[in-house]
Amino acid sequence: MSEVLDRVPYARFLRLRAERQGDALTVTMPFADRLIGNPVLPALHGGSTAALLELTAIAQVAVIYPRLRLPRPINVSVAYLRSGRPADVKANARIGRAGRRVAHVLAEAWQDDPDNPIAALTAHFLLADEDY
């Protein structure tokens, strides 16, 4: 499943890895010093956490609804629930609803325990192959 993420330059920069179990994906962002946003705590940069969530959601939609091009974000909302420690982060996404052209996706990122997420995403993605 990494072939979907390999199509996105920022996913390659973050060195995201995807593991697939059936249609479900778990994406891992390995820790690197360049991902620190607040060196005093230290805490992960919110932008890298948001990118992990958005790219996980895109990859999950691409698995379920394969298209010629990747799903395009219509709107994305990220809730930061707690600071990310300097450690690997995992994320997964699920499709809440999908129509012919739009999918609603929920994603969560965590470090040690999936029941204690550090951030959550709600987004809508355009599924159509045509340009609008």
Produce a short descriptive summary.
This protein has a single domain (2-126), classed as Hotdog Thioesterase (Thiol Ester Dehydrase, Chain A), CATH 3.10.129. Helices cover 23% and strands 39% of the residues. The protein has helices spanning 2-6, 9-14, 46-64; strands at residues 17-21, 24-29, 36-38, 43-44, 72-80, 89-98, 102-110, 119-126.
Describe what you observe in this structure.
With 132 residues, the protein is α+β, with helices and mostly antiparallel strands. The chain has one domain: Thiol Ester Dehydrase, Chain A, CATH 3.10.129. Helices cover 23% and strands 39% of the residues. The protein has three helices and eight strands, in the order H-H-E-E-E-E-H-E-E-E-E. The strands form two sheets. The chain has a six-stranded antiparallel sheet with strand order 1-2-6-7-8-5, with helices on one face. Strands 3-4 form a two-stranded antiparallel sheet. Strand 1 and strand 2 form a beta hairpin. The protein is globular and about 45 Å long. The mean pLDDT is 93.
**How many individual helices?**
3
Tally of DSSP β-strands: 8
Whole-number count of domains: 1
Content of β-strand = 35-45%
CATH superfamily: Hotdog Thioesterase
| CATH-level-2 architecture | Roll
The level of helicity is: 10-25%
- CATH domain fold name: Thiol Ester Dehydrase, Chain A
Largest sheet entry: 6 strands, antiparallel
Residue-averaged pLDDT, rounded? 93
Low-confidence stretches: none
What sequence of helices (H) and strands (E) makes up the elements?
HHEEEEHEEEE
Structural class: alpha+beta
CATH first level: Alpha Beta
Distance between the termini: 28 Å
Supply Rg: 14 Å
Biggest β-sheet: strands ordered side by side in the sheet? 1-2-6-7-8-5
Overall shape: globular
